[in-house]
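Lab manual, section 2.4: Encoding a predicted structure.

Procedure: take the sequence of the chain (498 residues), apply the prediction step described in section 2.3, and record the output as structure tokens. A sample record is shown.
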Amino acid sequence: MTQYIAAIDQGTTSTRLILFDAAGSTVAVGQKEHEQIFPQPGWVEHNASEIWQNTLEVATDALESAGITAGDVAAIGITNQRETTVLWDRNTGEPLNNALVWQDTRVEDLVKQFAADGGQDRFRQKTGLPLASYFSGLKLRWLLDNVPGARQRAEAGELAFGTIDSWLIWKLTGGPDGGRHVTDVTNASRTQLMDLESLSFDPALLDAMDIPAAVLPEILASSTHYGDAKVGPLAGIPISGVLGDQQAALVGQTCFKPGEAKNTYGTGCFLLLNTGDSPVQSNAGLITTVAYQFDGQPAHYALEGSIAITGALVQWLRDNLGLITSSAQIETLAREVDDNGDVYFVPAFSGLYAPHWDASARGVIAGLTRYANKGHIARAALEATAFQTQEVAAAMEKDAGLTLTELRVDGGMIANDLLMQFQADLLDAPVLIPKVPETTALGAAYAAGLAVGYWSDTDALRKNWATDRRIEPDMNPDERNRLLASWRRAVEKSRGWI
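Recorded output:
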């Protein structure tokens, strides 16, 4: 009987379940969006219960679309929006609060409080991360301090904390009836509570942030047996792969050698470079993170450049301004003009992430004149993604001491030919688009399949990877330098707003 691997891809805007075959090809997809909740400026929330129900629905949809049952699926992999934080009751299975999304900035006062004693890099040596509102440890601290009774109940062992992977695993494996409270090393490395060397939650970090150990999940490898699903349409299938979404894309792009890099163009943009089995501390504004750990093997690490707003800027033009009615229209509108008209859009809606890490920044549109029209705004919005990626790539080259010779890309925005060409032009390096674009889900599938022997080793995974398109740079160096200089001026205008 032909068997498949199921990958749950729980992202910032939607949940998908994708079925893959042994060649890494997509067999069927189920997908459903969930509500984006904005209680006040800077706050971003999701309903974790809605995400759980959507997970069950998309699993049913995908299995029915493929005409198969759970018995035809060898394993489940999970990939997730990483720092989004859930706190729930172990007895009822209900969240105490909406999930705090990775983009949420409500902990900025806590960031300042901690940075006042030791600076922004106070915890970087152990965690690889600067103090920022991005990571989940301070989000958990906020929930413990602000949800009535939460701290006392957490200390008593009544509550469980997790990123979305932990939440889904716990629910799938039984919830209050024996659900497993676990996470993988990649997601744990985004809490700012885990020591990169020991791959365990660090007591000194917990003490500094006032986090009770009783609320934390067990940390496991990215590819290992997490337990069997007991509920819903996936019941009976082993869960054997878990990776944060950007690390999953690195695995899906088969970047297993030090020096190999990928960029994912989604709600945000995330450029990861495999640095091998030792963590490399950044001096250029990047973060150090766990890339993956396969069962019985050492962890591999990565340098990462995290950009908060890329695809989300297109959604903002659609939903908040009504400039377009669908995201796909952005390229058509941008092509109505020959260039950006000297207009630059810095989407620092929740501050600037890598390589600046400036929480005081806010979004600006610079260079407006009477000449500018909606086509220029659309083009500037697309170009903002490429400009931000170029900044991160330059920082990565500085940290790693290498020159980027090519960039493997994935995510929804790679369908935009105008953006991909501009990206190659700014990087002055080829951009490679894979034949299977769903690399985030594919990475989770690979991790799950390796654990159950569906794929023999990483060499087998490499054989699945192939290029669909290779986009070569085609821009005059003087023009590139002029554009980058103008972008840098626009970035400076965004800083120090708060």
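Check your result against the sample. The first helix runs from residue 48 to 66.
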